[in-house]
Amino acid sequence: MKQEKEYLAVIIFIIAYSALSLKMYAQPGMAATIPLAGYVVLSNDDTLTGQIKWSLKYVENNPVEIKFIAENGNSKLFNASEIKGFGNIIPEWAVDDPQFVDQKFQDYVSLPSFKKSIPVFMHRLLAGRLTILQNRSSGIIGTSMTSEKTRIDGIGFTWNPGEGLSIGPTYSTDYRIIESRTHFTSYFVSKENEAIIKIEKENYEENFNILFGDCPAIEQELIKNPDLKKFQNFMIIAEVYNRICQEK
């Protein structure tokens, strides 16, 4: 009997530890299988706050339905054809503090799926002239924390893993925003709300000028540092583009 209890305790510990590990290494786009703080944007642009839980119904690996739980406890199912989008927070383990901390909201917008044009919720990584959406079927390359070790300098902007991204004298991000960003093998991209295209390493070079060629500031930086044109720097260039190339 004692051995059975000890065995059960070990199993419970393993399950609990695994759950902690999932949260500790939560990746962008991870499903909210338990209710998490979030919001819903209705078709009339009204925003409701409460808790979000995914219904785990997918089209092309994108969620199509969520359960919204209001602060009064009432709940309602919403699908991607009914609302404009939603957001939820994924907990993350704080390395320097033995507590769970909340990441920023992960935003999902209702869009036609890439292949079948069925309304789905797509995870929006960046918003601006370039909207970058996560391809949840793509593989993970890694993060800036492990793949970027060198300093990128330019008159227009500077990025350093320990300092963050600085664009001119007026804009900067905390280093954690880019340092912890996950890189994928492909992305879905819409420029100025036009049709979504799939960007991956194999077609990145041929699409580079379509995405960034209308921004002289980017061209000047590429002359000084050609490595910026590598696919691994796509998310950095995209964020810089959205910040300093706001006009056509």
Strand order of the largest sheet: 6-5-2-1-7-10-11-12-18-19
* SS elements, strand count: 19
**How many structural domains can be distinguished in the coordinates?**
2
The residue fraction in helices comes out at 25-40%
Strand content: 35-45%
Oligomer description: single chain
Enumerate how many helices there are, as a single number. Answer: 6
Would you write up a description of this structure?
With 248 residues, this protein is an alpha+beta fold. The protein has two domains: 1-123, no CATH class; 127-248, no CATH class. It is built from six helices and 19 strands. It has helices at residues 2-24, 144-147, 175-179, 201-212, 216-224, 234-244; strands at residues 36-42, 47-54, 58-59, 62-63, 65-70, 75-79, 83-88, 91-93, 100-102, 106-112, 119-126, 130-134, 140-143, 157-160, 164-167, 171-172, 182-184, 186-191, 197-200. A ten-stranded antiparallel β-sheet has the order 6-5-2-1-7-10-11-12-18-19. Strands 14-15-16 form a three-stranded antiparallel β-sheet. Strands 3-4 form a two-stranded antiparallel sheet. The longest helix is centred in the N-terminal third of the chain and has 23 residues, at 2-24. It starts with a helix and ends with a helix. Residues 4-25 and 145-150 have low confidence and may be disordered.
Characteristic terms for this protein:
248 residues, alpha+beta, 2 domains, 10-stranded antiparallel sheet, 19 strands, elongated
